[in-house]
Write a structure and sequence with these properties.
The structure is a homotetramer of 351-residue chains.
Chain A: E1 2-7, H1 12-22, E2 27-33, H2 42-45, E3 57-58, E4 71-74, H3 80-90, E5 94-97, H4 107-116, E6 132-134, H5 137-146, E7 149-151, H6 155-169, E8 178-184, H7 199-202, E9 207-209, H8 217-228, E10 234-240, E11 247-254, H9 261-271, E12 278-281, E13 298-305, E14 310-317, H10 321-336
Parallel strand pairs in A: 1-2, 1-4, 2-3, 4-5, 5-7, 6-7, 8-10, 12-13
Antiparallel strand pairs in A: 8-11, 9-10, 11-14, 13-14
Chain lengths: 351, 351, 351, 351
């Protein structure tokens, strides 16, 4: 039984891991920390938790929020995890951070990412970089098992990297030809209100945003380049549609040689044969994001447009699960030596 | 470990109990029966179940669909359960029927209900009436424990009866003054397509229907009359709004004497003190149907309009859970001697 | 051709009247005033207006915002219209105010309303009270034609008053038996962001609010009492559902004598025979709020529950049209001597 | 004043043109024809039209449905227009067909299209091919003015062709590099019910479909090739998201030489300088499909990803307006010598 602390417990990412941990047989929620709603029981802030968890939310400067834990989740924006991780590690905790703080293993790579989002490029805990692992279990399972600190991947990044890694590793696609056309549900932006996510302004609305560049591109290019063994550059488009949960990423790449859908299917199924949360489907499969909602699965639909010699992968995840809290718990399981799927194997509800 | 058969497995009510049983520690899904999609694995019809349940759907006349089970759910329309229940009982099974077939304990009461929905008023298994229990655990827990056959209540009826039973039992409300203003999500109509539930015709749409009379009124009046010890008549309005899951029933009754919200709260909390799935909340509680989605809870918000001397209860359920499959599993737990909450205590996901 | 000024032009109520005036053959938009987005062309703030209206938004203290107009709309919260109306009237303008400021004709009635919403009960322009008209054309057409200042009714109030006025006037319903169960779309709360109307918190959500009392009750009781010729008290419930536009109000009252649906239909049709925006329909009509979206119509569905001796009216409006900007334009037409329907007769779009 | 007949009046495409014609100053609706709901007034089938149009729906074999008209809209599926057009033309009518029947000018081109959608490749009125025009006014204004018969373009095709035509004409993009990633609202599939568009199966759902090839590709490639003066091939992905109205097409092409956003903007604005329904916007514009809903506008957002040397155009239309009935009316205006924008210049409503 591991004691768990969640920093940033009242955001969507925090509440997501709280929900999962309440049903995890080897974890015990011990401490919830957040800046808002301090002092209230979490089951009052989020009435669906009433009776399941009545821990109070502690302020970051409350002494009780410093009590040791075996696992600490930083479900916090960029910059918070790098401040708090050293102390947590010193107390013997394993750390899983949701932000970009620990997705890069060198100060230089972090700086490039930070500049892209207009943040301070100087990492405040550079001594930890290199000891961290990138928390996409399907690609870095062994490293995560060893790591004391894991940078949970970005939600868009999960959908794109899983969808393209096998093709890049096999050298199937030209490395500068990749396009990631990504559509996300609104919960991806978190619980902070904004005119853009006000219900009347968002229902019946589809739009692209950050056309000048999205911060997740760094991760996608780094990971795909690692798989390809050479530089990969992607054109990335972020779009929002009026669903709450779900990412649908449609991924394109020019084939280096004529390839059939059957060949691609075989390649992908082999690549993910040890990965219980990835389903590889053919182009006739009638699936959508509703079929992975509330689950940690990534459904990949493979197709080849032979007229234009192009590979197309449609990648489906729940942005708050495989795109966030689900991956975080999967990482915790690996770091703690639990079965990878513990507390995560559930089918979701339909409709 | 009980072996379970689900008849009507491919409707929303069927899939709902399948999802729950897959996570129930004492149940094993053995047989799925339906008229559509025969021969396909359920995990192919409903892709979110792929890997969790790959039982094939059997036709009703397939010999394998007749194999004995410990528990049989009839997740079927009116008229199917009464045909199949005698054989199931003869095989030693406990039977839970979703339709109106076993919600009434006399042929006369059934006939009145059947006439209201334009069905044949002659019950085909009248010998079973009187041996059945009405499957609302909060009111009939003891009877359900003893029963071999349970009629699962209607979704609207659950929300109304739970919301008004304490007041009626206490004689707090005039018996002819009750109004049930009910709003349901679209899933309540099942998976059968219709112009009314076509997405473009339903989004941004609110409407009342069946203004001439809804079949659930029979149950509501019968149960409230039982609590009151005298005849109760209700005005009932069914309305649909563009959500998928959820019923919000706003229930009104004229107080027989001035009463405070605090008194009503105390009365309700006492009434439900043994009922783990009912939460009684005061008029300041910020809750809605999203807070019970995917769960078996009924959240009741109590208020008194002293200017007009009226009690008002706002009742929130997930129509597919407490309104259907959740209550069905709760009944199975009672009938089989399992803890009432087994496999049902989960907080849902938010948002 | 009348010159029009809109104060509060950038809220949903402001933009609604701007859209209508752009298509009105006798009106010319002259001045737009608001506190936010000052200096920007309205067609930049609201891109759907680009090319249709490129007037800049002026600050309230900008001298150009004081230029005279023939008609001034105060699409502003409580308290703003009463401050600005005297100057506008002094300049010869006709004034239409959206808030509660001019819905009452005595300082005492206003004070009661103001207390209910926690505002200062002292009206700052009491000399205007008594000269104002309540802007529900169907009941006060003659007075509106004469008035220089009109208080546009509340959106819930429009739906309730139109739905019950004929019955109250005919003495058909017991005056203390009335219940108004009202469901509104989210746009009724305006464009101001809040956690309650954040998309992820609102989709799939139904809830009641302000159970302790909604400010629109004052108007409803006053108007129904006027029709009845005696005091009427209502129980009023405000609820929000995830649509953008639309109010569905289900209205109940106990009949003083047995009455048929046909009698009620005849009574209602007679009452509204001169009212082009009210449609009276029988209980079999398949209509909903989507059928009045974007229009100034109020669709009333009449039914009688003879088992409980109760009248039930289902009232449908677009809260931003008949519930706000549409009524405001209808009032302008009457005040300016234009045909009542000018610029307002359009069917909307479907779906 | 032209007399207008609408064949297929009760589908979404039919009702769309009915709504527009009711507000068109030079058109008079004379005849409505459909296979369903025969004999009912259109204002009863679609209650929002009650009082605006009460023409009855005539069966195709009703003699009154054969009465001459000045303009005939075939708002019908593939195969109907080619059967009826010769007779309509013989009566002197101008014909606008919504289907693929008259989008191609040779029997061979039609056959290729027909094969792609699994229809009979033999056109039944081949003598008309070559006399028809492709009804995208922005590219074929002069031809449409002269034509007696116009094939209204596909909804996806409108969004893609307008978005890419200027770049292709300027030779800015490699002709085999084009990718069209298209997301449509549900109304694009029409009013016919299907399990895919059942509300509970569609809310919270995003999915790709027809991955093996969508019929609109033919039009897109033909038109872009015409602009480019050489063969263009596109990878096309159709996707559905839970909005009712709207298409968001994200269009990608590899630049043949480094080009700035400013250059592209200038090129596009010049290309569309005579086209009142196309707005060209830079990459900072905060627009989405909600801003063109209910209107005939196409909003194009231009951006250049210089890191990957790629042009990206985000194209926004209302699929039932610019994608269907709006373009049809625009074509009628051109064919009849009316101003192109007559009856079409309206801003829509927001939100």
């Amino acid at each position: 039984m591991v004691r768990v602390k969640v920093i940033g417990a009242t955001g969507y990412g925090g509440i997501g891991i709280v929900e999962l941990l309440l049903q995890h047989p080897e974890a015990r929620l011990a401490t919830l920390v957040a800046r808002e709603d301090v002092g209230q029981p979490i089951g009052q802030i989020y009435p669906h938790l009433a009776g399941f968890c009545d821990l109070p939310v502690l302020a970051p400067d409350d002494p009780r929020s410093q009590e040791p834990a075996d696992v600490v989740f930083f479900a916090t924006p960029d910059g918070v995890g790098m401040q708090g991780a050293p102390a947590a590690l010193a107390q013997g905790a394993r750390v899983i951070d949701y932000s970009g703080d620990f997705r890069f293993t060198t100060p230089e790579a972090f700086a490039e990412y930070a500049r892209r989002i207009g943040k301070n490029p100087a990492h405040t805990a550079p001594q930890l970089l290199g000891r961290n692992a990138y928390g996409l279990a399907e690609l870095h399972r062994a490293a995560i098992r060893q790591a004391k600190i894991v940078g949970n991947p970005g939600c868009f990044a999960v959908s794109c990297i899983l969808g393209l890694a096998p093709a890049m590793k096999a050298g199937l696609v030209e490395p500068f030809s990749v396009i990631c056309d990504c559509k996300t549900g609104v919960s991806g932006a978190g619980k902070k209100v904004s005119p853009t996510f006000h219900y009347p302004a968002r229902y019946e609305q589809m739009n692209a945003y950050k056309l000048a560049g999205h911060q997740h591109v760094c991760e996608v290019e780094r990971e795909l380049s690692l798989q390809a063994g050479r530089e990969v550059r992607v054109t990335f488009t972020a779009q929002v549609v009026p669903v709450c949960r779900g990412i649908l990423s449609t991924l394109y790449g020019t084939l280096v040689r004529p390839t059939t859908e059957a060949e691609v299917l075989a390649l992908y199924r082999d690549f993910f044969r040890e990965s219980p949360f990835v389903r590889v489907l053919d182009s006739q499969a009638a699936v959508g994001t509703l079929h992975v909602r509330g689950t940690n699965f990534c459904n990949l639909v493979v197709s080849v447009d032979s007229r234009t010699n192009r590979l197309r992968i449609v990648s489906h995840i729940d942005n708050l699960m495989k795109g966030q809290a689900g991956s975080a718990l999967q990482n915790m399981n690996l770091m703690c030596g639990f079965p990878e799927t513990l507390g995560l194997l559930r089918p979701g509800i339909y409709p």
